């Protein structure tokens, strides 16, 4: 779907991105890089139908398909609909010659994350005036081993019902207010049939492969 947006607001977000802590090995840095403003120039220029018609006339008059006008443009991927459940999948491999290599670097991630700096200013299911879109961590998948073999384990949080999440999923009502605190509960580490209670600090020090957050606000 192609829509015309006001150039002044097309690249605006719900919250200021300049205030972010962009430590390289952090989930905030990953999200910032994924949603950064990109310039499309040279061979990446955008085909512009308006420019083509302005230069060559209506499309039906263009007999040579090569007669198209390309223009420099800006591109940015932003969230237009904040999900009830936020799933973040970290790319833990990199190309090394003809081989793939496992990336074992620790990526810092918080218990509560604000998605507002990565949402469009016109995010559809955020109440007017809200400048925060908060999520609380409730699950982590960790992979140990190499690209050829390894083992998956999980961290899961046993917690009480999230009423804000229920309202959003069942009734489509956007959360109106919430504290910027994680949902209270007990973390557990699950490895095959072994389940063990662990601290939040243990969870936050894991080498996450998948992160699961539930919406608070």
Counting DSSP H or I runs of 4 or more residues, the number of helices is 4
User: How many strand units?
Assistant: 13
Spans with pLDDT under 50 lasting ≥5 residues? none
**What amount of the residues lies in strands?**
25-35%
Report the sheet with the most strands, covering strand number, pairing sense and barrel closure: 7 strands, antiparallel
Q: Termini distance? A: 28 Å
CATH topology of one domain: Cathepsin B, Chain A
Shape annotation = globular
Name of the CATH homologous superfamily of one domain:
Cysteine proteinases
Instruction: State the name of the first-level CATH class of one domain.
Output: Alpha Beta
Order of helices and strands: HEEHEEEEEEEEHEEHE
Rg for CA atoms? 22 Å
CATH architectural type of one domain: Alpha-Beta Complex
- Percent of residues in helices: 10-25%
The average pLDDT value, as a whole number, equals 85
What structural class results from the helix and strand content? alpha+beta
Question: Summarize this, please?
Answer:
InterPro entries: Papain-like_cys_pep_sf, Peptidase_C19, Peptidase_C19_UCH, USP, USP_CS. One of its GO terms (molecular function) is cysteine-type deubiquitinase activity. The chain is of the alpha+beta class.
What keyword list fits this structure?
alpha+beta; Cathepsin B, Chain A; 13 strands
Structure description:
The chain has 217 residues and is of the alpha+beta class. It has a domain of 137 residues: Cathepsin B, Chain A (Alpha-Beta Complex), CATH 3.90.70. It contains four helices and 13 strands. Strands 5, 8, 9, 10, 11, 12 and 13 form a seven-stranded antiparallel sheet that branches. The protein starts with 26 loop residues before the first helix and ends with a strand. The model has no long low-confidence stretch (mean pLDDT 85).
């Amino acid at each position: 779907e192609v829509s015309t947006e006001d150039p002044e607001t097309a690249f605006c977000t719900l919250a200021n991105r300049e205030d972010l802590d962009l430590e390289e090995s952090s989930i905030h840095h990953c999200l910032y890089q994924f949603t950064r403003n990109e310039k499309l120039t040279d061979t990446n220029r955008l085909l512009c139908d308006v420019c083509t018609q302005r230069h060559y006339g209506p499309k039906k008059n263009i007999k040579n398909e090569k007669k198209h006008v390309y223009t420099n443009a800006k591109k940015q991927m932003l969230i237009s609909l904040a999900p009830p459940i936020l799933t973040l999948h970290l790319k833990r491999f990199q190309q090394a010659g003809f081989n793939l290599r496992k990336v074992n670097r620790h990526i810092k991630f918080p218990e509560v994350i604000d998605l507002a700096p990565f949402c469009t200013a016109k995010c559809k299911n955020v109440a007017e005036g809200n400048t925060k879109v908060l999520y609380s961590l409730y699950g982590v998948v960790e992979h140990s081993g190499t690209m050829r073999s390894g083992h998956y384990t999980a961290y899961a949080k046993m917690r009480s019902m999230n009423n804000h999440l229920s309202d959003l999923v069942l009734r489509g009502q956007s959360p109106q207010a919430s504290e910027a605190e994680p949902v209270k509960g007990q973390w557990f580490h699950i490895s095959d049939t072994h389940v063990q209670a662990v601290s939040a600090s243990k969870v936050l020090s894991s080498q996450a492969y998948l992160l699961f957050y539930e919406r608070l606000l």
